Queue: 4 jobs
Job 1
Amino acid sequence: MIVDDSAVVRQTLTALINKQSDMKVVETAIDPIIAQQKLPVAKPHILILDMEMPRMDGITFLGILMEKTPMPVIVFSSVSQPGSVKALEALRLGAVDVLGKPHGSYSVGEMGIQLVEKIRGAAHVKINRRATSAMAQPLVRPSVTKPINLVPPTASVGWDGPIVLIGASTGGTEALKEVLMRLPENFPPLLIVQHIPPVFSKAFADRLNDLCAIDVKEACDGDGLRPGLALVAPGNYHMMLARNGRQWRVRVADGPPVWHQRPAVDVLFKSAVEHAGPRIVAAILTGMGKDGAEGLLKLRKAGAKTFGQTEETCVVYGMPRAAFELGACEKMVPLQRMAEQLCQSVHLASHV
């Protein structure tokens, strides 16, 4: 079911979806009020939801929907700073994924491929009231306790200790929040690839920065790595690990999508293979598809410590499953224990 006040959007998305052999648009609505009336009859499996609509905004409607009739929701939101903030709020309330609405004349293009894949991913999501109710609780930054002495606090130049890499997709924004909020402020350098549209990635990084003891920012080309800093790959750009003399840095660059994704987890993971061995600790979290599995396997073969999120704690057990089936994961870890596992692993790596 498509809920959007734009007739062009409704018609274009309907045509795109109905071309697929495994999906069909059963209903559309111009606003949430009409959607509420049509839902009991249409009984859609997945809902595509705009944020800005007359009579009731998407956030209000999503809150009501997740309380009364929880289902997988894909947010289709404006690629602007206000739109990004609302999209992230929707993910907190239980939406499973987000897609950026293009500027100007409406064109499907690569966005159409992404939407189709997101719908397929959402079809595997199991929503329940208890889970969505827990996610809807207000975000409160935890009190920061005395940090675990994992790394020297002054080791910001010529860093030669562990480097942590994490990849995620569908359900990853909340999963990453769960992990990063549990990390101490002097945690080793952390590089993150989350499948997310442009502009949304900055809002996502800013949100994590407000919540976490570590610093979190959207990566820029040439950013240096240091303890206590997490860099999030910007939407629509790949991020790679590189070395410049004694300083580790990231490269942020354009390039063809990998697994229909830019940024792609595999691009980051594979860029770190030549620097692997005991210094790299890598994890792959919830997400649809196979992105990251090949790179994680290469890292493990090169001596990195590698982990995947367990099926029962994933929103979509796609990327971790692909990695597990390839033999890329040294261990499968529940989401609530992933931060602890990473802390233990970097502690061991720092003593190698």
Job 2
Amino acid sequence: LGEVPSPIVKLASGENPLGASPKGLEGVRAGMAELMFYPDWTATRLRRKVADHVGLTPEHVVCGAGETEIIGGIMRAFAEPGGEIAMARPTFPVYHQYVQAEGRTVRFADGGEALDVGPGPMFETVSERTRVAFVTSPHNPTGRCWALEDVAELCRRIPHALVVLDEAYIHFSERPSGFAVLAEHPNLIVLRTFSKAYGLAGLRVGYGVADPRVIDLLMRAKPTWNLGPLQVLGAAAALDDDEHVARTVALVSEGRRRVEEAAASQPKLRVVDGSEANYVLLRVVDPELDSTQVFKHFLRRGLVIKDGTVSYLGLGDRHVRIDAPPPEVLPRVREAIRAL
């Protein structure tokens, strides 16, 4: 690649450009005083805080070392070996990686050339054999959202299965949360993470909210001491940091718009419209280029973006994903797009 300019900036993981929640960091520091003790295996303090936050009870909440740990528990608790798990293609790769690791069977709702990751393909894919169906809204990697009416309809179509609504990026969208329809659909679980809007990706904390009968099974499936005091107190404190979340959302919204504007002026690229997440998916339309070449082009300029060929099944070699950059990085992103 030759000499790469410094500093190298990662725009591939959806990390918070403002850093960690200041209140979350205060909670982490408070947790250091408890490091000599084994933690409460139920993470009661965090479950109570989340329950207050969403207007339910702790019995509706399970916490994990990131959403990913809860996803693994869902596979084990709700699908027998060989059981069918439905998901979009392309999608967050951890879903199908866990399906393979846990010996279950994946059924893809294929988005095709149009990247249609909405309810239509999913409705056609699920059946009486479905055990779990994953819906990511905003979707990874397109950033597109499902309407809550469609989530509810999916729950009605497969009452024997668990519908998982992954809202990892919901703070960057103005859509209502799936929390609003939980009471009517006991086969729905809504997942959230502290990695994005709260800037605590390295702390590894996520939670799920569902009917207490669903939570009871997941509490049995999870590791015993999966969260320590740094995670519990840090995440609980971050939930009160509305100011940090608001600043993050404003910065990301502006950065996303600026990237879309820059890409719209580059004839070799096309914006995949509809993103309500903290990234933009771009289609490489120049037949002389592919996603890996575009990835290397950015890397030579010290910018790490996501190559769709490497990161997503079914996306092929025509797409790259770029996080919304902070203002100080935006000129470098614009120049890389212009120089393509």
Job 3
Amino acid sequence: MAKVQPAKKLSTKEKIIKTAIQMFNDQGIQRVTCRHIAEEMGISYGNLNYHYNNKEALLLAIYEQMRDEMSNSYLLREEYPTAFEHFYRLLAHLEQFQYKYRFFNLDVLEISRTYSPINRILQKTLKIRKKQMTELFKQFVNEGYLTKRPKEEYERVQHMIRIVITFWLSQEEILTGFQSGNKQGMSGHIWELLRPYMTKQGLAEYDKLETGFSYVFNSQ
């Protein structure tokens, strides 16, 4: 019988990040200070300050964790048989990721304006994501899932996808009574943007993915 491995014990730095994410998600970034986080954890402010000497340092550590976590999904193309399956799984992860770090997308403008080091890394990351998305679209076309269109046309589609990703949680907060009719949420709307460009092969592959996977997008 295989031995059950004990759960990894979190370090103080990991506990600080975990608590901070939860409090930022629940209360918003403006209402939470490092002293609030220390109080919630039952540790001294000096202890927290030893690991992260200000809120900017803590937010930077959280953003680096976010970037690394999402980067892994973008780099898993060879794990899946088709580019569409990779994208399907990428969107599934991204949707869960959005809710895990809910505060960041809701407060991204405030964060980027207030913390210039984070803004600089954010801008670099957005450029990397743009290149990765462009490469994905090339694979979609090369594998016969999307029709061949002018480069500028697909650049506009990619830009619309980025807008949906960036502001999805914000519109959920504001348009509380709006029902889109799409049970897949953000991912479903992104696929709707792609559908007019799909070939017969692309439509068949998408339908196969829809019936073959049953991702649950949890908004908790």
Job 4
Amino acid sequence: MEKVCRILKSALLILMLAGPVVSAVAQEADMNTETDPGTEDKKKKKGTDADFFDFTIDKLNEKFFSRLAINVLCLFLLVRFIYYRNYRNTEFLFTFFIFNLVIFLITFLLNKVDMSLGAAFGLFAIFSMLRYRTEGITAKEMTYLFVVIAIGLICAVAKGTAVELLLINLMIITAIYLLESSIFFKRESTQLINYENIEMVNTQTREALIEDLKKRTGLNIHRIAILKLDYLRDTAQIKVYFYQ
């Protein structure tokens, strides 16, 4: 029952946030229809109901597959050689690939209905800002999710040649690689530790506590943060910061 309530709340929040954006998209489409004098003639020539049942493929052309190939290549470079290499976490790989693929397909099709890049970005950036209700997601993983969505949008609706799209995506991937590496600054990682010697957890023995944690864990700990003290069990929850 609790999960159902969370799902309903998430759906309601999505509808509330997506409402104004969808309205803006509809107004933009209406304005484009009004300003284009040849729209009615095009509809009469092409038809609406008749074309829907035709056994023809006009959307899946060379442009679609070339943009899809660039999108998949850039996504693979980002997820496999940067995210997975640094964090060794397979939990969000499925989410990254499915989010990117679905958003690429939807935005590519919506781009055929006179919708600008700004309207498409505003429509789908909403979902990247929402946290999952069933499990927590860190700020860095939210950033990767946002980048995955951005790559899908750029490859789907951005104007330019294949080389330009590839260069733009490679610029994003290169920037992430440089920030994740230790070229500009050392990479700092964190770990939670349940410490049983609570007598060492005080301001006067902070250095001795860090040295004890170094010996026990073998990590190059340079600072700590005490998150929780449990005097009934004589334990403390400590967050340690160390350089890899």
